[in-house]
Specification:
two-stranded antiparallel ribbon, elongated, 6 helices, Ferritin
């Protein structure tokens, strides 16, 4: 039987992703050598912080309302996506490697993380209440904007 989450639990997972995205971009905003990339990281950190607040509000407003069951082993899928592909707390070796990477390599890494976040949010969106689903839909569109912003900084 598929595990049923409350919307609060789903929001907590998403909030963690956004908190880690905020930390990721904030840290690189301080260390990026490219001024354009540094400013972009500041903008993206700010946006991730706003997304974190949105998910925190969903948790506060609908903590116990049950979301739909995820098909199959949805819990394992969600945790796997979050752990392996979406923003996680970067360890020091990963941070050091990215700090030494070219702007394009950093952009490619960040785009991969943004796309994984979009995939995660699209997966959980259908399981939420109409109100929460609408909010997550708005965040998905903003995450897509992040991909476009990152691509705009890429070298030609």
């Amino acid at each position: 039987m598929a595990k049923r989450y409350t919307m609060g639990e789903v929001a907590r997972i998403a909030e963690e992703v956004e908190r880690n995205g905020y930390a990721f971009y904030s840290r690189f905003a301080e260390s990026a050598r490219d001024p354009q990339l540094r400013e972009l990281c500041r903008e993206l950190a700010h946006a991730e912080g706003e997304h974190q607040a949105t998910f925190a509000a969903i948790f506060t407003n609908e903590p116990d309302e049950e979301a739909e069951a995820f098909p199959g082993d949805g819990e394992a899928l969600i945790r796997s996506i979050v752990r392996e592909y979406v923003f996680t707390q970067a360890d020091e070796k990963e941070f050091e490697a990215l700090s030494l990477a070219s702007t394009d390599e950093f952009i490619d890494f960040a785009i991969g993380k943004e796309r994984a976040a979009i995939e995660l949010f699209e997966g959980i969106r259908a399981q939420l209440s109409r109100r929460a689903s609408r909010l997550v839909g708005e965040i998905i569109e903003q995450e897509r904007d992040h991909v476009r912003m990152l691509k705009s900084v890429r070298s030609m």
